[in-house]
Each structure stands twice: as C-alpha cells, then as structure tokens.
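A quick aside before the break. I want you to see a complete sequence-to-structure record at least once, exactly as it would be stored in a machine-readable document. Don't worry about memorizing anything.
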Amino acid sequence: MHKFALFLPFFLLVGCSNLLFYPVKHHPVSPDVIGVFYEDIYVEASDGIKLHGWKLYAEVERTGTIIFFHGNGDNVSTQLPNTFWLPAKGYDVYVFDYRGYGKSQGEVDLDDIISDMELTIAHVVKQLPEDEKLIVMGHSLGASMAIYTVANSAWRDRIKALVTVSAFSDYHDITQDVLSKNWLFWLFQWPLSFTVDNSYRPLDYIAGISPIPIWILHRESDEMVAMIHAERLYETAKEPKSLQLIDSSHSNIFVKTVNRKVLLDYLLLLK
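That is the input. The structure line, written in tokens, reads:
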C-alpha cells in the first residue's frame, strides 16, 4: 500500500492526458431496433485510420441536416437517446465515433480527433445540396471540441449554427473539476490538470464562431460541467449568440420532450 502511494503521482502524470477520453467500444443497440432507418458510414483519415459513423435518415420531408459530436464515455450507439427522435422531425443526422471509440480504428489522441472532426464535417457537406442547412451540434466533450472545429473549419460558410450542450470552457479547468470529486485524485488535481493539452481551449476560440450563430444549452445544476463554464462561454462569444437553461441530467438531455421542443423551436428560426 505504501509503495502504491509512493508511485501514484508518477502513474497519474503518465496517464493524465487520457483523462479526457474514456472510449466505449460496445454498441448495445442499432437504430433499426428502434425503428430508425440508417446507413453505416466509413471515412478514412489521412493516416489511413477508418472512422465509423451512422447516417440516420429523415422519416418525413427533410428540414435540414445535423452532425452530432457525442460526449466522452459514449459512442454512436449509447448516445442514441439524444438523436434517434430527430429523423421523425425531418432531420438527417450524422454521428461519428472518434478514433478508438465504437467501430472506429486507432487510438484516442486529441490532435487527431480534432482533425477527424473537420474531416467528418467535410464528408457531410459534400453530401448536401448547396441550399441545405447544416447544423453542428455537440454534447459535453464533443461540444467543447466542436467550438474549435467550427471556428477554424474550411466549411464554415455551409454551417448555419453551432449548438453546444453542456460544453466546458477550458480543458485544464474541467480536468481539475473532475479530479477534485475523487478523494484519490483530489491531492493532485491542480498540478495534474496542467498536464492536459489546452491548445484547443474553447474560451480562446468561441469568439471566432461569429457570424455563425451559437446556441449554448446548459443545465444550471449540471452534475459534470458546472454552470460557470456556460457563463464564460456565453460572455466570450460574439453575436449572434444565446444561452438557454434546460432541465435534464448531464447525459440524456433529449429524453425529455420539453427539451426536444426547445431545440426544434430554435432550429426552425434558422434561415
């Protein structure tokens, strides 16, 4: 026990950069099981890694297209509660697994995943008619990474809005927040948080989203990402911007029909 305590800081320092990612491989359900027509999609990255995703097809006349970046500890299957209902409302939905997640090849790496997100946006844009509106939407880690990606995307002129759900504002801060909740990591929370790459810090890039509208959804008492993150993001973002409080758990936001209506009402306002 004493030896473990002695070497714990070393092991934590070695592994801390991976605290951002908890890859989930298993797909517990596929969209057809819940009556949603879908297609498997594979996109190849520049290093040869194949990324897997799903396209969920609109069940009525198409209103628009959404690309959804899921959160940590999720994959295209486990996040279905947040997306399966959108095809019935007229939206095609694309959702991809990050490398190392689900059926996507490779190992998790922040730089590579950020690059892969731009690749998947490019793939989706190339499938759309010129007048089709594309909404980028992300949850938690996916939302925070999407802020950098959209701000710097070569395809930003095709993106009609960015919707963030439970996004955090700073990689160091969220790492410290998570570590502080565990007695084993509490003592090391501050120094270890600075071993995490903060190059894609959302607060540094959210102003660059403009003139693309950004809509920040957050729960005031979110159990994973404190409200202060949403407030900082909103304050730093440029117009057009809005902040909407929602009532939900951190993960399954759109299980509640009231939150679905809030999202749909916003999407209908987009020109």
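Two observations worth writing down. Residues 1-17 have pLDDT under 50 and may be disordered. The chain has one domain: 36-269. We'll return to this after the break.
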